[in-house]
């Protein structure tokens, strides 16, 4: 089992969902993002997702776009992202990179896989890369036992879900709403059919592949609603825009931003444990 799978298994053994927290590397700056992500770990995140800032983030809404652009304007590059990964992974928390595919191709797929593994990273979440177009990444990831997290959506066909889950490792990312991040709230009623289909179409009936739900989760109450219930809920709840928004709301006051970030993380961690 990968470290990511182990974190999901630990949460499942405790009768709850795992909390997956996202922030872009380099926001508000490189050292600030390291400090913020460590606060999220200390306050209850089971798994960390680090965004690689990119100029054309088709899945991300205005909140994450603003943070990523701030990082890009400050000159953050892939080497900085890997430095953030190394610092956060050193806490012992599974740390994945969420990235669009173009930066990985430009960096070099083999080189990226090697450097990510050397930094202690657990794997990649690739929102715009599907398994049928990912043979090079799959081979490089498998060689280094890196997680390959692909996405499914409410619009995904059964055939597409089966192909995606067969290729995934670590977990599969189920988008809670049809839309970009941070704009629409996910609901259990809306997500449950996708989670159920994904589990049913996964190898071994989903027993070994957790399903994390992201896009549209921002409060502890929502996290509680989406967490494991009667065997049909999400194995993990993924939160991004709410964390980013918290820091955006405290420009120039790092201490206040980190305190607010800790409070939000604790609320969400309480939600997945409710």
Q: Which secondary structure elements does this structure contain, and how are they paired or packed?
A:
Layout: H1 3-13, E1 18-24, H2 30-42, E2 47-51, H3 62-73, H4 78-89, E3 95-98, H5 101-107, H6 109-118, E4 123-125, H7 135-144, E5 147-149, E6 151-152, H8 158-167, E7 172-175, H9 188-201, E8 211-214, H10 220-226, E9 236-239, H11 241-248, H12 254-272
Helix pairs in contact: 2-4, 2-12, 6-7, 10-12, 11-12
How would you explain this protein's 3D organization?
It is a single chain. It is built from twelve helices and nine strands. The chain is an alpha/beta fold and 274 residues long. It has a single domain, classed as Aldolase class I (TIM Barrel, Alpha-Beta Barrel), CATH 3.20.20.70. It has a nine-stranded parallel beta sheet with strand order 5-4-3-2-1-9-8-7-6. Strand 6, helix 8 and strand 7 form a beta-alpha-beta unit. Helix 11 packs antiparallel against helix 12. The longest helix has 19 residues. The protein starts with a helix and ends with a helix.
